[in-house]
Amino acid sequence: DRMAVESPKKAFRRQRRLPMQENTNAASQLLVRHNSSDRFIPDRGSLDLDVARVNLYDEEKERSSCPGSPYLSKQAYRKQLSATMFPKSRILYFQRKPRPAPETNVYSSDPPRPLPMPSISHRYIPQCPERTLDAPEILDDYYLNLMEWGAKNVLAIALGQRVYLWDASTSFISELVSMEEEEGPVTSVSWACDGRRIAVGLDNCDVQIWDTESNRQLRTMKGHTGRVGSLAWNVDSTLTSGGFDGKILKHDVRIREHIVETYRGHEQEVCGLKWSGSGQQLASGGNDNLLHIWDNRRTEYLHRFEAHRAAVKALAWCPFQSNLLASGGGTADRCIKMWNTDTGACLNSIDTGSQVCALLWSKHQRELLSSHGSAHNQLTLWKYPSMLKLADLSAHTSRVLYLAQSPDGYTVASAAGDETLKFWQVFGSADAPKTTSTSKDIAFKHHTHIGLRTLNAGSHDRLKSDMIFRANVEDQEENLIKKRVEDHMVENMTEEQKSDIATEDGDSD
Questions:
Q1: Is the distance from CB of 204 to CB of 164 less than 8 angstroms?
Q2: Which residues pair with 294 in a beta bridge?
Q3: Rounded distance, CA 318 to CA 324, Å?
Q4: Residues 6+ apart with CB under 8 A from 360
Q5: What are the DSSP E strand ranges found in 75-170?
Q6: Can you give the C-alpha Rg of the chain in angstroms?
Q7: Which of 34, 79, 212, 256 is the most exposed place for a label (fewest CB within 10 A)?
Q8: H-only helix segments in 410-458
Q9: CA gap 173, 169 in Å, rounded
């Protein structure tokens, strides 16, 4: 009777004390505790937590994988709400924010920025000459070379029997020499590299060397049997002359027996001679439509070009590419051709539409200036290597036979059969202010053979025409770029793509 009944709680505790015993009455014990009013204490030893965790995650994965489940809708709602209320960042940061990627990084999270448009510089190209001088008695002869600008900024020009020197720094003019009737007229002039000595070719087949500082003749050299229409000094102080007899003579003016080489390759008059900047190659053009390239160490020509169909007088070596030569043909040819003088390849040829009289490269821009004969008697500025026409400068009334460039490369002088000498700032202008002489009008007044002519052009009309000109140049460049892109696309198309385009064009017609 006194036996006390053991409570279920005590029995549960006593049972747990036994090691290595499986709990088989967990369910009944839970029911007993649930029915009783005692506090719930879970038995974690009887639970399989790993299985419960796997079941929980599988259930969550099944809910998220169902497209129409409310779980997905709730997640989407949370994301939308978070993006609306906090679009850029979280409220609290519990760790250091990572450094942003640089803008140049491919994986940068910053929004892409548009690339800056390339700036187009508009250079002003004057349509009118800066100065005009009278040049009476200048010979209107395509095969002569009567003007050149020396290294000391002195321009030499031959007018009939006389040679005049115009100092561009002081605007002062002096007469160097007046030839006798049996000697002249003067057929060519060429400055030495020192800017002091000048060679004068004559109609009587002679070549004279003059010292311009002392105004005295140094020597006379013979060797040709016809007039000397072209002269060219080399950097080694040797002089090359081309004559009506088709011969090219190389003179060493320092020795008594001055003829050191004879180049034979032309059958008619040699009207163009130019040494390259390095002094290693000589270009010669003749009335026989031939262009020769000579090596300084040999008397046989390196290349013989027969592509021109008229006399080749205009020659110009490129200042920024030593093996690039530009040549221009006469009335029956009208072409400017670019040559690689190392390989002998013709790089480009363009029909200018008129006789090419002279060529000049810019020393500051990749541009080429050409002078022409009828019908427009213009100077034309070309952009190299596209050979896009940048400007036509029309001021002469006769063919522009002679061109000369100042030592700084900015000013160009042009002389024509209309007996005028014009100065152009076609290649830009120097940063330094221009020097003007107060006595230049008096200096020109004392010389009747060259006079200053004042130009009265309306500034408003010039500004308007220049604006229209620049707009036309931009349109031409844009059209040229579009055409080249289209040509490149067509070249890379397959035959099937080309046939599809042709079919579309036929349907549209």
A1: no
A2: 282, 301
A3: 5
A4: 316, 368, 369, 370, 403, 405, 412
A5: 131-134, 147-149, 154-159, 162-167
A6: 45
A7: 256
A8: 440-445
A9: 11
- Amino acid code (one letter) for 133: L
DSSP state of 170: T
Q: How far apart (Å, rounded) are the C-alpha atoms in residues 335 and 270?
A: 19
Of residues 170, 141, 184, 138, the one with CA closest to residue 422: 138
Report in angstroms the alpha-carbon separations of 373 from 202, 244, 356, 368.
25, 22, 7, 17
Percent of the chain predicted with pLDDT > 90: 58
Please state whether the peptide bond connecting residue 385 to the residue before it is cis, i.e. omega within 30 degrees of 0.
Answer: yes
Q: Is the peptide bond before 375 cis (omega within 30 degrees of 0)?
A: yes
Ranges assigned E (strand) in 352-462: 356-361, 367-372, 379-383, 388-393, 400-405, 412-416, 420-424, 452-453
The answer to whether 229 and 245 have CB atoms below 8 angstroms apart is: no
Task: State the residue for tokens 């719930």.
Answer: 40
Using CA atoms, how far apart are residues 209 and 220, in angstroms rounded to an integer? Answer: 6
Contact 390, 368 (CB under 8 A): no
Edge-to-edge strand list for the sheet holding 247-252: 228-233, 238-243, 247-252, 259-264
Question: In CATH, which superfamily holds the domain spanning 144-268?
Answer: YVTN repeat-like/Quinoprotein amine dehydrogenase (2.130.10.10)
pLDDT tens column, 106-131: 555 555 666 666 555 567 899 999 99
Residues composing the chain: 509
Entry pTM: 0.65
The separation between CA 107 and the C-alpha centre of its own chain, rounded to angstroms, equals 35
Domain boundaries, the chain: 125-141+355-430+437-474, 144-268
DSSP state of 46: G
Gap between the Cα atoms of 418 and 157, Å rounded = 15
User: Are the CB atoms for 414 and 371 separated by under 8 Å?
Assistant: yes
What is the amino acid identity at position 341?
Answer: T
Residue with tokens 């409220």: 91
Lookup: tokens for 383: 């952009």
pLDDT, mean of residues 231-252: 96
